[in-house]
Amino acid sequence: MHEPAIPSLTGADPEVARLVQAEARRQFEKVRLIASENYVSTAVLEATGSVLTNKYSEGYAGRRYYEGQQVVDPVEELAVTRARTLFGVDHANVQPYSGSPANLAVYLAFLEPGDTVMGMALPAGGHLTHGWGVSATGKWFRSVQYGVRKETGVVDLDEVRDLARAERPKVIFCGGTAIPRTIDFPAFAEVAREVGAVLVADIAHIAGLVAGGAHPSPVGHAQVITTTTHKTLRGPRGAMILSDAEHAKAVDKAVFPGLQGGPHNHTTAAIAVALGEALDPGFGLYAHAVVQNAKALAAALVERGFELVSGGTDNHLVLVDLTSKGIGGKPAAKAMDRAGIEANYNTVPFDPRKPFDPSGVRLGTAAITTRGLTVEQMPQVAAWIDRAVAAVGDEGELDRIAAEVAELMAGYPMPGWA
């Protein structure tokens, strides 16, 4: 049953309540390996569903365009203070609605339409908002893209430097959505300084690892840092922009009034709760456990003949190239889902297949680590993945795996389910 309980919703709209309960059960019974997902605490859930959703608050604390901010201002100030403390930054803006608007605010703050921006190509592991062609950031700005070496699956920073020297971007993004290796923030900072660019570190995927000391921090190297607040940070669906003092004013002006109206105060409160949880020493143990689980899962998959982009992982993310298995990522991901293992199909570097039917699947260990799974369970998870990929089209076998998965997960508590 969903926790907190939803009796009012059940009475007022049983159809929606039924769907909420069904989703809670689904999350409880499955091995959730989508790298951008996690479980939030019950406290975060309660804050997200609080009466703060009723309040409109254009502007910033102490400088609002609506009255009645006596409670909302301290909520936002608390979130800002905790973000600054957790990441060790001069400034934090906790108002962006999500990661893409946060990145778009960077463009508004530091670029004019047509200016050159440099980011990691989407097929190599970058994000749409780092200047990819189908995104507004690729349509409104002149975008140049770097990738990875075919032999290693890792960014070649000499090529990044050569490209930056030739194209002279005003903003350089580092980070992305399918990067299984440590991001070399000092090396990117050196390139950015040489060409006079603002370095933006998009740590949406690894923010919790950075906060927990399981990944190097971009603070002191990147002038601006963008991140979502869910994924490895275990907060609500929101975002933050962190910066040094020099770039703070431009960031704030870009978020409001540049892109947004009033912030979502219930989300701001939930961000504050999640940041408070991340400030607890136990969060560092969680962050390191996420990485240990990812490494163990990667090793177990390699033992079963799977090919991994870059050969393994340094963080929470494992990118599997299924080419040698003779199956595409989409049918594999759908079979895994039927088998109780939630993942997403994903392009791999130099993928010969189309983006909607790519060669890879992307896995992540943040959510299963929250549930309490350890390195001891990773060989079993890899075995289920292997069986599911081999059983595409065999619904009986996939259902048998799903039953085994549900039996295992029943022994691990889930925040949001009682």
Automatic annotation (TrEMBL):
One of its GO terms (cellular component) is cytosol. The keyword Amino-acid biosynthesis applies. It is found in: Cytoplasm. GO terms for biological process: glycine biosynthetic process from serine; methylation; tetrahydrofolate interconversion. It holds the Pfam family SHMT. The record marks 230 as: Plays an important role in substrate specificity. Homodimer. It is an enzyme of class 2 (transferase). Catalyzes the reversible interconversion of serine and glycine with tetrahydrofolate (THF) serving as the one-carbon carrier. This reaction serves as the major source of one-carbon groups required for the biosynthesis of purines, thymidylate, methionine, and other important biomolecules. Also exhibits THF-independent aldolase activity toward beta-hydroxyamino acids, producing glycine and aldehydes, via a retro-aldol mechanism. Thus, is able to catalyze the cleavage of L-allo-threonine. It comes from Saccharothrix syringae. The modification N6-(pyridoxal phosphate)lysine is found at residue 231. GO terms for molecular function: glycine hydroxymethyltransferase activity; methyltransferase activity; protein homodimerization activity; pyridoxal phosphate binding. It catalyses: (6R)-5,10-methylene-5,6,7,8-tetrahydrofolate + glycine + H2O = (6S)-5,6,7,8-tetrahydrofolate + L-serine. Residues 11-385 form the Serine hydroxymethyltransferase-like domain. Keywords: Amino-acid biosynthesis, Cytoplasm, Methyltransferase, One-carbon metabolism, Pyridoxal phosphate, Transferase. Belongs to the SHMT family. Its cofactor is pyridoxal 5'-phosphate. Signal peptide: none annotated. This is Serine hydroxymethyltransferase. (6S)-5,6,7,8-tetrahydrofolate binds at residues 122, 126-128. The keyword Methyltransferase applies.
